Amino acid sequence: MHTTFVTGSYRPDQDGVADYLENLRHHLARRNISTEIITTHDSAQAMADPTVNGALTEWTLPQLLPLVQKILATPTDILHIQHAAGSYKFERPVFLLPQLLRMAGYRRAIVTTAHEYGWWEWEPDWFPSSWLESLKQWGQKRVWWDREDGFLLTGSDAIITTNENITGIMRERLPSLRQRMHTIPIAANLTVDPIDKAVARQQLRQSCGWSADSRVVTFFGFLHPIKGINPLVQGFRKVVNRFPKARLLLMGGVETLALRGREAKKYWQKVQQQIRDLNLTAHVHCTGYIDAEQASRYLSGSDLGVLPFNPGVSLKSGSLLAMLAHGLPTIATCTHETDRVLTDRGVVAPVMTPRSAAALTETINALLDHPHEQQRLREAGYAFVQPFTWDSITAQHGEIYRRLLNE
Fold it and tell me: Are residues 106 and 247 in the same domain?
């Protein structure tokens, strides 16, 4: 079986969706499902991989024609579109792709994975809002298009989401397509390296120049303004006042599809300046981008994890799943966007106020003060994350692909 993926970009070192897709391809190959990528020329040139092919320079309407031509010329069994708004630089023409392919005579099965949904409707200032709403409802009732993703969902033979929150919104909007919808959660975005915890703790502290009895609180993921880095660093000043041995590890790079070049460098410098201004240079260490093996060892050597995302953490976060898989008691911002199972089952220590340095300080201090709660979170998180495996994910993808081929 052969699957062709269409994705907005393919830079696993800069984009979480691309990293997910790279892992998915690797595990599909183990099940004798070969894959290739169709994406932008920039991504293809950067990857220098014969299975990664460029078809367009940007995701604008005129460039859909060479994309359609490329897809029509590519022999495959399944066409699988991966969609997250940021990877397409927030351009919407890709929503027309299934319809354009069908008009061009394309008869292969089309699958779409929606990594995000429910927040990004088309609402241009120049179009009367009442007319637009009527048009959205009129087409959606007839299952011609979806009010948010155009023809992307209605034109797909199978729809995959990464969490039940998204699936629930889709089912309400497109009830007649429920049979096409499948929820397949993501897995941790790095494999747990088999290293002794004591060795990992020693290596981490030596690498950062910290004492052996330091208590390390770790953030893992791309550094970005929406990740709550600013209030975390600000709040950590008071954590150190209470626990002088506390240390903060900011593990991850800055350069992403959403923050590139000069803007990325500027944000990195801003974080470093904040650390200096708060006299935390000896207490905070920034790794920049590091490889998966080193990242896993640092997580194994940490005491607590912290993910203070402004919108709240969810099961779409590979960083969260990685922390839980490493048995790390994890503090996370929880909002209305957070998957309820995380709070209902006590998987994370919740911070209920986003962007709040004081709330982060209070939660970190409380957890450092209570080793029994750390152990409870460690056990609850590790047990919770066990079903989130790449073997399960690829098995479910393979089942969907085979069913579509049989049909």
Answer: no
Rg (CA), the chain: 22
- 110 and 51 housed in the same domain: yes
Residue found under tokens 């990857």: 47
CA 173 to mean position of chain CA atoms: 24
Cα Dmax for the chain: 67
Q: Which two tokens stand for residue 25?
A: 């391809």
The CA distance from 349 to 338, in Å, is 13
- CA-nearest of 310, 196, 313, 322 to 251 is 322
Question: What is residue 318's DSSP assignment?
Answer: H
| Residue 168, C-beta contacts closer than 8 angstroms, at least 6 positions apart | none
The residue range of the domain holding 28 is 2-187+389-406
What pTM was estimated for this model as a whole?
Answer: 0.81
Assign residue 165 the CATH number of its domain: 3.40.50.2000
- Could you tell me if residue 192 is inside a domain? no
Q: Residues 233-284: pLDDT tens digits?
A: 999 999 999 999 999 999 998 887 777 788 989 999 999 999 999 999 999 9
